[in-house]
Amino acid sequence: MTESQEQLQKTLDKYSLLLDTSGKYTPFFQIEDFNESSRELFISDTEYEIVLAERAKPYLRKKFSDINELLYWLTTEAIKKIVSQNREKDRKGKSLSEYLKNVYQQQKELMHMINDEWAERFYLERLEYGKRVMKISD
């Protein structure tokens, strides 16, 4: 691992510990895992690029010029996954709008453990997504 990758991994490990609600610490992102055929992380002096692939065909390519934007994106993906693990039991008896607002609120609370500004940004992005794609109401 390069020095840049090691520093990035240390930050992500710190975030994983903060988000560990289960008491069983598991890092939500391992840079060395990105050497698999399905995931790659490229770091240059000016840019970070993530490529996710399935069956050796890329389906997502994201570039970041700012490490904080990369960290934000990786953290939002981890938080969405953490919250989604409890979805089915939380869904019963609720409208889609009510359920999604609850999910977004849980995501926001987790993000506050990392960064307050990111939490507000993430929550507003998720609400906008819900309104635009899922057609939830205010």
Core attributes:
138 residues, alpha+beta, 2 domains, 53% helix
What fraction strand? 5-15%
**Low-pLDDT windows of residues:** none
**Arithmetic mean of pLDDT:** 81
> Tell me about the biggest sheet?
3 strands, antiparallel
How are the strands of the largest sheet arranged?
1-2-3
What is the H/E string? HEEEHHHH
Please give a structural write-up.
With 138 residues, the protein is an alpha+beta fold. The chain has helices at residues 3-18, 67-84, 87-91, 96-112, 116-132; strands spanning 39-43, 48-54, 57-64. It folds into two domains: 1-66, no CATH class; 86-138, no CATH class. A three-stranded antiparallel β-sheet has the order 1-2-3. A hairpin with a 4-residue loop joins β1 and β2 (48-54). α2 packs across α4 and α4 runs antiparallel to α5 (116-132). The longest helix is centred in the middle third of the chain and has 18 residues, at 67-84.
List the helices and strands and how they pair.
Layout: H1 3-18, E1 39-43, E2 48-54, E3 57-64, H2 67-84, H3 87-91, H4 96-112, H5 116-132
Antiparallel strand pairs: 1-2, 2-3
Helix pairs in contact: 2-4, 4-5
